[in-house]
Design a protein that fits this description.
Length: about 70
């Protein structure tokens, strides 16, 4: 079976403010954020795998060696 997948370019942002409000009656906190889009992107690709192979995360790029790809 051939693997099917999709690639998406995801724009980066800088959070200038992130405020978490009190717990609401629905059990969730209100979140208020102010962010600025910047001219950096991540290319994210996702592909299917045969049943029973679990989940694999591969990270690549100039600074990828500092990003954990396990449960840490």
């Amino acid at each position: 079976m051939r693997s099917r997948g999709v690639v998406a370019r995801v724009p980066a942002k800088v959070n200038l403010q992130l405020s978490v409000g009190p717990l609401g009656s629905d059990g969730y906190h209100e979140v208020i954020t102010v962010f600025q889009a910047i001219s950096l992107f991540d290319d994210v690709s996702v592909a299917t795998a045969p049943v029973g192979n679990g989940l694999t995360i591969d990270i690549s790029g100039q600074t990828s060696s500092g990003v954990p790809a396990d449960s840490s």
